[in-house]
Design the sequence.
């Protein structure tokens, strides 16, 4: 059970936070959005951090999920749950269709292609005003209810998204620690060697691309129901870049790193508000500093640092102990 | 029936013919070496045998099944594995995980069942780990099992790559210059490993420049020059073949190791 120790700890922290800080804006509002960001970052990290396939268009799948839910529930009066499923089917199909041609590309070219995908989806959302409400967005999206438990307050949303986040972390950890997860990492390490070990690299890339898109779609649907309002701004190119930043900042190929990156990038702007005009400058400075001093990402960087500190201390203790022994020997 | 039967194999890149009308047969349970000067087309041959390049003409039959037109992962499924002249390590993983990737074809689970960690995953994980450890011990790598791949010296990585290939339980192992860049001690170890692999029932197709090693481990040798077959036969026959001596060994045979 060592494997899930970190997850239990994280779940405990999520559960206790509202009791430590009751009625706190940062817990009930900012943490909820950090949770959604974390889910997105985890999904992007599977694709980018583990499988090594960069995507600058991940917000597209988030947007499709959100808008499918929004349109079906408000314009057609659907129940939210089947809308989420339709969103999943829609996103999954689209991801599957574009995956093969797109993932033949590598490096910068793949980045460009995914960027294009993100922009196209964004343009569709803006231009199809009759369906999506265009640039003004659409409101009045009903909230979710689970077995009669209506998620109608910030606290309840905190619980719901907390549970969802823990579930997604669990799924991601399971995948990484399996035959398929190793295939993803192998793909990143050396594509030709992965093929030679019998891994169908084209199918594996498609699989992880679709999986990441599906997770993003669920996050999108939940986002729409939670906000009760969606507008194209939330799914723009800039949000895709922000997601990439979360993954890189937290640490590529680390699920907890992605979570940490998402939490920091969500909270930092909120905390920097007190600096008013200098907010963006300080934000940029912090990001640059982190990348220069912790290039492996915050999570792995901090872990190494902690490891070093503990190691040093135990070494010192050992030294002291052995010195004592020597002294005794002399005496 | 030969294990591997290559006929009329030809490939050219933009007008340059790298391999021309090559034919040879690899018998089962042998160490079969392919030698030739730099640029003779040995690695190109390996890339065709493993499905990375598609020849312009000719056929490659492995256990009576055609390889030409197959993707590398399909070739791997047939029972061919390989190592690379320039290491193709998964540097983002530990030695153990590298070799566990080698067990890919011996395990079955999918992304979706893995995500939910269904009970069969646990069994499969334990099995893959046991296989990987066994293979690493076979290759004399027990000291390095838990280490990250990017922390190891070149000579060790060469053997990890072999272990990874062996973990897929191939019938034929293609080794592209296993002794390149190794010092004398490591070369002797490599010679022992190649012999053990052969004795364990895996046929070996070897490309190597170290003539001492080739002469000591090979059952048969194919010599190619400018992409064509120059000679084929037992090591003694090759050593005494005037054409080979002239074209390749430069008139004087020297044995290292």
Sequence:
């Amino acid at each position: 059970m060592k494997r899930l120790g970190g997850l239990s700890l994280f779940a405990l922290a999520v559960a206790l936070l509202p009791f430590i800080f009751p009625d706190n804006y940062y817990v009930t509002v900012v943490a909820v959005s950090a949770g959604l960001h974390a889910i997105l970052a985890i999904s992007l990290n599977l694709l980018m951090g583990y499988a090594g396939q960069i995507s600058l268009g991940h917000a597209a799948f988030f947007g499709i999920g959100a808008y499918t839910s929004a349109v079906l529930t408000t314009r057609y009066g659907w129940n939210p749950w089947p809308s989420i499923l339709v969103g999943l089917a829609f996103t999954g199909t689209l991801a599957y269709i574009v995956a093969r041609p797109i993932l033949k590309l590598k490096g910068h070219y793949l980045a460009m292609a995914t960027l294009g995908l993100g922009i196209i989806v964004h343009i569709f959302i803006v231009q199809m005003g009759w369906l999506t409400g265009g640039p003004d967005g659409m409101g009045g999206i009903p909230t979710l209810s689970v077995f009669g438990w209506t998620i109608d307050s910030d606290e309840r949303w905190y619980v719901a998204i907390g549970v969802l986040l823990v579930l997604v972390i669990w799924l991601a950890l399971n995948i990484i620690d399996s035959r398929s997860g190793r295939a993803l990492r192998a793909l990143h390490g050396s594509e030709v060697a992965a093929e030679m070990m019998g891994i169908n690299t084209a199918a594996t890339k498609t699989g992880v691309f679709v999986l990441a898109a599906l997770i993003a779609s669920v996050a999108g649907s939940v986002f729409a129901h939670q906000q009760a309002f969606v507008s194209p701004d939330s799914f723009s190119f800039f949000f895709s870049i922000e997601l990439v930043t979360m993954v890189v900042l937290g640490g590529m190929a680390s699920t907890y790193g992605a979570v940490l990156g998402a939490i920091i990038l969500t909270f930092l702007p909120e905390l920097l508000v007190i600096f008013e005009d200098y907010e963006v400058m300080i934000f940029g400075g912090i990001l640059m500093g982190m990348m220069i001093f912790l290039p492996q990402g915050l999570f792995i960087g901090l872990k190494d640092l902690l490891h070093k500190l503990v190691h040093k201390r135990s070494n010192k203790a050992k030294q002291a102990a052995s010195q004592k022994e020597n002294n005794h020997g002399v005496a | 029936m030969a294990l591997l039967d290559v006929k009329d194999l030809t490939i050219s890149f933009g007008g340059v013919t790298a391999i021309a009308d090559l034919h040879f047969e690899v018998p089962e349970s042998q160490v079969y070496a392919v030698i030739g000067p730099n640029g003779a087309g040995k690695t190109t041959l390996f890339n065709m045998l493993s499905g990375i390049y598609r020849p312009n003409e000719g056929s490659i039959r492995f256990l009576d099944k055609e390889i030409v037109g197959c993707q590398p992962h399909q070739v791997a499924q047939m029972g061919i594995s390989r190592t690379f002249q320039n290491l193709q390590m998964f540097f983002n993983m530990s030695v153990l995980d590298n070799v566990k990737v080698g067990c890919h074809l011996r395990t079955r689970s999918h992304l979706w069942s893995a995500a939910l960690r269904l009970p069969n995953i646990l069994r499969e994980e334990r099995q893959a780990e046991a296989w990987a450890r066994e293979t690493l011990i076979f290759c004399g790598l027990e000291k390095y099992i838990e280490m990250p791949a990017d922390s190891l010296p070149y000579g060790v990585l060469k053997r990890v790559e072999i272990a990874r290939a062996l973990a897929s339980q191939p019938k034929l192992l293609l080794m592209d210059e296993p002794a390149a860049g190794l010092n004398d001690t490591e070369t002797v170890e490599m010679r022992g490993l190649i012999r053990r692999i052969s004795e364990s029932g895996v046929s070996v197709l070897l490309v190597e420049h170290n003539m001492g090693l080739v002469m000591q481990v090979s059952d048969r040798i194919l010599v190619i020059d400018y992409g064509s077959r120059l000679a084929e036969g037992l090591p003694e026959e090759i050593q005494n073949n005037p054409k080979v001596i002239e074209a390749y060994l430069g008139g004087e045979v020297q044995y290292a190791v």
